[in-house]
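Title: [Solved] Dual-action HEIGH metallo-peptidase 3D structure

Original question kept below for reference.
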Amino acid sequence: MKQFASLSLVAAMAVTTVFTSCEKASVEASQAVPSNTLAKIEALGFNVENAHKFTDPSGEAGYIVEGDIFLTEEYLANEMSAREIVPGIEEEHYSTNNLVTGLPRSIKVYVDPNFSNFYVQATDIAIARYNAENLDLQFTRVTGNGKRKVKADISIVAFYEGPSGGYITLGSAGFPTRRGKPYNKINLNTYYYDTFDDVDALATTIAHEMGHCIGFRHTDYMDRSFSCGGDYANEGSAGIGANHIPGTPTGPENGSWMLSCSGGDTPFSNNDKTALDYLY
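Solution (posted by the thread starter after getting help):
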């Protein structure tokens, strides 16, 4: 999730501009995406501006695209098929083709013990926001006893990476699998967040990445400039779908928790709640 910030914020963090994804700048050669892979990602419909290599804390390699979407090599090979970009779409709520199935269902969320309690508090706030909507999808934070591996549906893990080549990745996640499982990992950059003090804004970032994990696209996927500024940038259907959620607006809407760039503390809007209720 990309976020801006001033003292009030339009998305999260910093005194003028900060990002939970990546800034518009050059990418170092060591992190540049090979041309053949870049062509494949672009053919799927993703916007490839500032796409770059990324290896998560477990050693899984892939690519960050559109600010906060982590595409693993396996996901690219097995979960996607090229589709055309959906033309003429306005700013509405959108879901991927793959959603979490087996409802009603409880999703277990695990916070890496390397995180401080600040991250745990933010995760609990994000979980409470979802659970307050009385969905058929409920979230529970689980902890380990240090003796065995924790069984979780989504693990929130830490990585430490400073700015490189003019951008910084602060958080990322992926989309549900074809088997109806939520994406299993949210990456948060402690380089940035260890100096952060707004727990509600961090909760919004976590809730946003959880939204991707259960199948939500960016509200303004068809033109990221609506919330991020800059040039027109259509993220495309990307082979994963960009399905309009009935009951949500057909015009621009500020304040959605799934905007590409949103306010620091952004609880669910009424239309966000409509979208959540429709899918789950």
